[in-house]
Amino acid sequence: MSEACHIVCPACSAINRIPTSRLRETPKCGKCHKPLFSAHPVELTTASFNRHVSRNDIPVLVDFWAPWCGPCKMMAPAFQQAAAELEPLVRLAKLNTENEQQIGAQFNIRSIPTLALFKNGKEIARQPGAMSKEDIVRWVQTHI
User: What range(s) does the Thioredoxin domain occupy (predicted)?
Assistant: First the structure.
């Protein structure tokens, strides 16, 4: 029997137990039957942040951003492209710090965009500033 990992569904937030060997086989949520990976970052809120960061067994890369931020807008397509390349071994997520100020304050986000990489609910790396898709992928791979 292969090792399994827990993946939080981006659609309904149900926790799914998936054999690690089957992560690349486009697994679907056992509750809502939607794909667990869609090559798009997950939009997080205060209500969903802790569940996604602490209950996913794969690393979670969070883009702390705001809609008024020019560099955030410029980096958004690169972040989405990185999601297509890094999934299913890394979950990419976005948190709007304008709407979710409590989480931004909790993690002492002082500049945006800021990328924070979480593993097992703990922040393991942080990188402020806009990055290209290649730089995002390279940075993540050096930390996982």
Answer: 33-144
